[in-house]
From TrEMBL:
It comes from Paraburkholderia aspalathi. It comes from the Bacteria. The modification O-(pantetheine 4'-phosphoryl)serine is found at residue 39. Carrier of the growing fatty acid chain in fatty acid biosynthesis. One of its GO terms (cellular component) is membrane. GO terms for biological process: lipid A biosynthetic process. It is found in: Cytoplasm. Belongs to the acyl carrier protein (ACP) family. The gene is acpP. Transmembrane segments: none annotated. The keyword Lipid metabolism applies. This is Acyl carrier protein. Keywords: Cytoplasm, Fatty acid biosynthesis, Fatty acid metabolism, Lipid biosynthesis, Lipid metabolism, Phosphopantetheine, Phosphoprotein. 4'-phosphopantetheine is transferred from CoA to a specific serine of apo-ACP by AcpS. This modification is essential for activity because fatty acids are bound in thioester linkage to the sulfhydryl of the prosthetic group.
Length: 83
């Protein structure tokens, strides 16, 4: 799965779970300031990413995630760990 495919999957997650329009979900978008997620939403997002990748996300890995680009990086590292 490449970066563009990951972004598309993330956009779908945001639309389905948080009613956020896909065009707002850009790599530079800040999860909390731009997309108005709260800490509970962040937990929900982590769960959806676990379902998407089939890998468990360690809380300490997800604490540094602030932007959609960070989410893409986290997914890439989870997928790389599978290989």
């Amino acid at each position: 799965m490449n970066e563009a495919e990951i972004l598309e999957r993330i956009r779908a997650i945001f639309k389905e779970n948080f009613a956020i329009e896909p065009e707002r979900v850009t790599p530079d978008a800040h999860l909390f300031e731009d997309l108005d997620l709260d800490s509970i939403d962040a937990v929900d997002l982590a769960i959806k990413l676990q379902e998407m990748t089939g890998r468990r996300i360690k809380p300490e890995e997800f604490k540094s995630v602030r932007t959609v680009g960070d989410v893409i990086g986290a997914v890439e590292s989870l997928l790389a760990a599978q290989g």
